[in-house]
Each structure stands twice: as structure tokens, then as C-alpha cells.
Amino acid sequence: MSDTPAALREAHHADVSGGWLRPAVFGAMDGLVTNIALIAGVGGGGVSPHSIVLTGVAGLVAGAISMGLGEYTSVRSANEQVAAEVAKERRELERHPEAEARELADAWVARGLSRDLATQVAEAVRANPEEALRVHVREELGVDPDDQPSPWAAAISSFLFFSVGALIPLLTYLLGATSLWLALAVGGVGLFAAGAIVARFTNRAWWSSGLRQLLLGAAAAAATYLVGTLIGIQGGL
């Protein structure tokens, strides 16, 4: 552990702005769980290994496209909403600068600053219109207008990591094995590993994070396997 205070080190906090890490994590997890559940469901129904591979590949392609488009739309819509609110705040600062300064001072007083100090700081901020806009947006909206996530980064990250996650439970079939349980076991290893990797960014115990993700994926696989088995039995009657 470094003896240098964290406040003096650059980038001592992880990126929590939601740029690429969040869609990457969700994409990989979703890809793993989706295809494990799909394979378990159709495998439980008694279909051939070829049909399982076809289902898995279709799930990979459809899911990756859906995740990418969904992330792009979601992030872009959120950014547009932030931009609209920033424009609204800019207009208020131009039309009613005194009222906005009082509002900012009131917010700081509520946090424990004295009225005189809060007023002085608010007036100092008001003297720089662009900085005043950034401060007001951060205080009132809780966002940084200059640090918004990229919709393209989110979409590409989600697409790629979903594809990787969805590919893992298919690996054994693609390499020539035909055992459903082997494929599910490999998928389970992938789930545990993904959960353990996520712990690197959350300071959670790696084994606890991995086990949690494994159990969640196992629950999804068990549910779809049961459904597939029931439909397969009924279809054979």
C-alpha cells in the first residue's frame, strides 16, 4: 500500500461514470447467463447437439445486437436529457443570476457552511459563467456536464463482451464435445470467473462475488432446464 495520500494521487478512484465498464460487465454477465439458460433449456428438451449450437449461436448474435442497440439508445437518451437540463440551467443563470446564486448558497448552508461563507463562494462562482454552470449542474442534477459517457463506447463494449460471455458455454460443442453437462460446467466456470473479476472493481471478496454470480446463473439454468424437460416430455406423448 502506498504511503502517498490518496488525494495527491491521480486516478485513485475507479471510473464510475458508466462509460465502458458498466456495459462491459453487464454484457459479459448477460451473455453468460442468457446462453447458459438457452443451452440448458433446449438441452433439457432433448434436442440434438447441432440444434443446441444453432440455438446458442442465434442467441449470441441476437443478444449482442440487442445489447449494443439498447446501450446506445439508453446512454444517448440519458445524455440528451442531461443536455436539455444543462440548457435549462444556462437560461436560468442568464435570466436570474442573483436567484441562482442564492439557491446555490442555500444548498451549501444546508450542508453546514455558514451563511456568509456560502454567499461569498456563490458570488465568486457566479463571476465565471461557465464554472457557475458546471457547479449548478453538479449541485442540482448530480452530474458532471463535461464527463458524460459515450453511447458508442457503451454500445461497442456491450456488444463485444456479450458475445464473449455467450460464446463460453458453446465452446465445448464447437470443439466437438456433445455433453450438455460439460457445456454447463464450463459456463459455470465462466460465471464464477466473471464474478471474481468484477470484485476487482468493487472491493468485494473475489470468491463471494464469483459464488454469487454462479448461483444466480445456476438458478436461471435450472429453471430453463425444467421448462425444456417438461415441454420435451409433453411433446413426446
Automatic annotation (TrEMBL):
Q: Give the way it sits in the membrane.
A: Multi-pass membrane protein
- Report what the protein is called: Membrane protein
List where the protein spans the membrane: 152-174, 180-202, 214-233
Localisation? Endomembrane system
Gene Ontology terms: biological process: intracellular manganese ion homeostasis
- List the PANTHER family hit by this protein, alphabetically: FE(2+)/MN(2+) TRANSPORTER PCL1 (PTHR31851)
Q: Which GO terms describe its molecular function?
A: manganese ion transmembrane transporter activity
Gene Ontology cellular component list: endomembrane system
Pfam families xref list: VIT1
Q: Does the keyword Transmembrane helix apply?
A: yes
Which of UniProt's keywords are assigned here?
Answer: Membrane, Transmembrane, Transmembrane helix
